[in-house]
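ligand=zinc ion
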Amino acid sequence: MRALGLANVRQERFPLQVWERGREDAMVLSPAPQRIAVTALGWSPATPVGGIEAEVALVDSLEALKAAPANAYKGKIVLVTQATPRTHDGSGYGATGPIRRFGALEAKKRGAVAFLLRSLGTHHHRFAHAGSQDRATITQGIPAAAVSPPDVELLQRLAKRGPLRMTLTLTPKPVRDGFSQNVIGEITGSEKPEEIVLVGAHIDSWDLGTGAIDDGAGTAIVLGAAKLIKALPSPPKRTIRFVLFGAEEQGITGGRSYAEKHKADNHLVVTEADFGQGPVYGLNTRFADPEHPTAQALMRVLAPLGVVRGSNAADGGPDVSPMVEAGVPAIDLAMEGTDYFDLHHTADDTFDKIERGRINQSVAAYVAALWTFLSWAAISV
Ligand SMILES: [Zn+2]
């Protein structure tokens, strides 16, 4: 940000709770021995020394798990086998997300000693898909892990041949206190500096890969937009604030901290780039008046990039969602995500997946949309 010439570059520190992965090992014992690929879910406690050996109960869905009576899975490892559908807008992941967040809590209520789920990804490689659980699992969880999709299908076949027994060993460290930070920079408005247009991305990622897609791509789009807006011959009328949030993956910790600290700031509109590299195909707004002239002005600059008008139910993105819930207007530049969950939160989220042409189109769309807010007279959406 300093190299780009942004103003007021700073870090804003916030407290968080630290969960750190350890060793993870899973082995089918019967009906046929086979090592399977697993990864512990965020906040999972460790298994007892020596690991857990138990029978595995296959369950079709979170709903089926919740419908089971108390003690239905006493002493067993529960595995929810539901697959995440491939969709271009992330709605498939939205539908299966609760399995990861609440599955361990529901399995524990029914006597289970550990919880497994089919990885919440659309990939077919033997990588498991990491992710966070509900915060209640910090104190009330049981050992919990994701299984790679081909291994879940293997377990479903093996289960037809006889009772399925396996061992599971997870050794994450106990949760401890720590801190992280949001990184902020601005281009100060020339006429109305107190009016802020905020664009964010997040700089944390899951540990299995390098976070190139989630959310290095979004960070690149935001900083690419900063570079182009800074290079324009005249400064924007309003202030644009670029925020690289910390600790999104553990439950929007940086986003909540920012929203609390900056609730008195005059945020005109907020948005985030956190759905891979694009291209951008749709504009969603959350305006009091979806037919506001600003929405029409946005479509005039976005349509030539292939962008179509979407809904007026924008959420802005995960890190800005606390501000949107508090009533701040938002836009989403919806990005093509058919392949996003092939990579997201897995060891395959690495820089070689980045495609310059997709990033370039996304940067163009963000600059066009942001400049509309920064330069235009009729605002207050
Ligand atoms: Zn993300």
